[in-house]
Design a protein that fits this description.
By secondary structure, this protein is mainly alpha-helical. It contains 9 helices and 5 strands, in the order H-H-H-H-H-E-H-H-H-H-E-E-E-E.
Length: 304
């Protein structure tokens, strides 16, 4: 069963969460694995930026964004394959030299998770390819705006919590807690100016708080909150719906032939009453044209 473009796009976004989960588990087991495997795994540290780029591209209502996403996924997949190959080589070499016995189980776990992550990245790239091949594409910028800002709300609470625990609480950190839920609730309303003003106030609040705060957790949360809010402001000015309809084939030409009369001429020695006339519609009674009476002469006279 062929999936619709909407289901394909939602699948890409959901699997990004699974990708981040695999990455977290890999980072948890890397310190317990061999040093050679840890050095190889460190190469894919830049993949998180590619994943974040794919996530942002999946929220932009444009096929150009999906083209950027598939290029990022191809780069991630190639890097995963290279690191997996290097990790296997160093593990086999370490075992041949009689070392890495204690760290071998954790190294195999890391390489196994990396193999699953590679398959997942390849599947993601294939799914984006299918999205680009679809003839019908529908995307709503307002729906994506609500999704992005919903992700930003937990970081707004985290900023206020971290600042309060660290004794740095400021009233300038509270506007996002009010503005973001309002924008999420009114995203589908024709109030672009008001919603844009709320997002601008949110960004100003984040910038002022970022300058004054000292807590590292609050700083990280502010950065993520600011990126998501700025992206939401960008989505606010994008078209609500971008649609490309599939090409419709022209209707087939229908040629209607005129009706004609088949007149049967009686054979000498046959009663005149046997002769008959019948009007046959060529479009409905075409098989009747193939019926022929033996030893009969058929004269076809076209009457228009």
């Amino acid at each position: 069963m062929t999936k619709s473009p909407v289901n394909l796009q939602n699948g890409v976004r959901l699997r990004i969460i699974l990708v981040f989960a695999f990455s977290i588990f890999i980072n948890l087991f890397v310190p317990l694995s061999s040093d050679a495997v840890g050095k190889a795994i460190s190469i894919i540290g830049a993949n998180s930026y590619f994943y974040f780029l794919v996530l942002l591209c999946s929220l932009i209502p444009s096929k150009v964004a999906w083209m950027v996403a598939i290029m990022a996924l191809v780069a991630v997949s190639v890097l995963d394959l290279v690191v997996l190959f290097l990790g296997l080589i160093v593990t086999v070499r370490c075992l041949s030299e009689g070392g890495c016995i204690q760290t071998l189980p954790f190294s195999l776990i890391v390489l196994g998770l990396l193999g699953l992550l590679t398959l997942l990245d390849l599947y993601q790239a294939w799914t984006v390819y299918l999205i680009l091949q679809t003839k019908t594409y529908i995307a709503s910028a307002t729906q994506r705006l609500r999704v992005v800002l919903t992700w930003a709300v937990p970081f707004a609470f985290l900023v206020n919590f971290a600042m309060a625990v660290n004794g740095e609480y400021s009233v300038m950190a509270t506007p996002p807690l009010i503005a973001l839920p309002i924008v999420i609730y009114m995203a589908h309303q024709p109030e672009g100016t008001f919603l844009g003003l709320l997002l601008v106030i949110t960004l100003i609040s984040i910038a002022i708080t970022f300058i004054s705060v000292q807590n590292s957790l609050a700083i990280s949360a502010l950065m993520i909150e600011g990126i998501l809010s700025a992206f939401g402001l960008l989505l606010l000015f994008m078209p609500n719906e971008w649609y490309t309809s599939p090409s419709v084939p022209p209707p087939p030409d229908i040629h209607i032939l005129p009706s004609f009369v088949i007149e049967k001429t009686p054979v000498p020695g046959e009663l005149p009453s046997v002769a008959a006339q019948s009007v046959i519609d060529i479009n409905e009674s075409l098989p009747q044209l193939r019926q022929r009476t033996k030893k009969s002469l058929i004269d076809i006279k076209l009457k228009f």
